[in-house]
Design a protein that fits this description.
The complex is a heterodimer. Chain A is mainly alpha-helical. Chain A has five helices and no strands. Chain B contains five helices and seven strands, in the order αβββαβαβαββα. Classes of the chains: A mainly alpha, B alpha/beta.
């Protein structure tokens, strides 16, 4: 019985390990495609889309990678042409800093309110 | 006192949510040309359609306005705007550059043979990658640049008579 359990545990661990290594093997190109918006599609990333535009962007991104450009430079190049809207993850700057910080503020505030409420009910 | 504090917090949370939704839902998410207008075009090297020569920025004359038109023979709106381009081609102060987008040379030539050739030079972007430097995401698109290669206007979709007047106004106002 113990042997069966150990075997089961090893299989689970192996599966998890395979999953982890598969994630590690995702190329930088796929990572970039997943963070780019297909401008001619309905809510799809460049990675998901088979549109003409997405295919062209994929070629351009791969070309830029082979030219030695890094992820940030590629986002900058495309944002310059199509606006920041093409990148899913917005840049952290003074305009959208509130957007980045506000969920944490709401989380802390919400946590504080719940804590206060529970404490009050116990009393 | 404690309850009023809770009420104030809740009130601000509601206001915050409304403001976030109001701003987010009112943002215009359509592609616009504001990112490239006023900027110098990138350096480019594109193959000429008729032969193996390469055309690049330095080949653009620096005493004229240039109208870069991205088109394809398979694109129906390109046929629609073609008479406007033919009219613009008669203007000596404008240099018309056609970028043939994801097209076959044979089809492009046949398109121009049937409808007329308005371009001073035709470039061939067979995989569409060169057009990305001009912020193109479909055809037809037209970019008006000045002699310093600064983008003055970008037209998305087929040119119409208003665009024709706009282009001439820009050229002759300056």
């Amino acid at each position: 019985m113990l042997f069966m359990k150990t075997k089961f545990l090893i299989i689970i661990l192996l599966m998890f390990n395979i999953k982890l290594s598969a994630d590690e093997n995702i190329g930088i190109d796929t990572k970039i495609f997943k963070n780019l918006r297909c401008l001619v599609c309905q809510g799809q990333t460049i990675a998901e889309s088979n549109s003409d535009f997405a295919q062209t962007i994929k070629i351009v991104v791969r070309d830029k990678i082979s030219q030695g450009r890094n992820e940030k430079e590629i986002y900058e190049f495309l944002s310059e042409k199509y606006g920041e809207w093409i990148v899913y993850k917005p840049k952290f700057n003074y305009i959208n800093s509130f957007l980045w910080i506000s969920p944490y503020i709401v989380l802390i505030l919400g946590g504080y309110l719940i804590f206060k409420y529970i404490r009050k009910r116990r009393q | 006192m404690k309850m009023s504090f809770l009420k104030i917090i809740s009130f601000f949370l509601v206001i915050f949510t409304i403001v976030v939704f109001f701003i987010a839902l009112n943002i215009d998410k359509r592609y616009n040309t504001e990112n490239i207008v006023g900027k110098k075009i990138d350096n480019f090297k594109i193959k000429v359609l008729s032969h193996d020569q390469i055309f690049e920025n330095k080949d653009l004359s620096n005493n004229k306005y240039h109208l870069i038109n991205v088109w394809a023979s398979w694109c129906l709106p390109c046929k629609e705007e073609h008479p406007i381009l033919m009219k613009l081609s008669k203007d000596d102060n404008l240099n018309l550059i056609g970028i043939n987008f994801k097209d076959k040379k044979k089809n492009a030539n046949s398109f121009l043979k049937n409808l007329g050739n308005p371009y001073n030079i035709i470039l061939s972007d067979t995989d569409g990658t060169s057009s990305i430097s001009f912020g193109v995401f479909g055809v037809p698109e037209t970019i008006l640049i000045n002699e310093k290669q600064i983008v003055i206007k970008k037209f998305i979709g087929p040119l119409d008579t208003n665009d024709y007047k706009n282009i001439l106004n820009v050229i002759y106002e300056n």
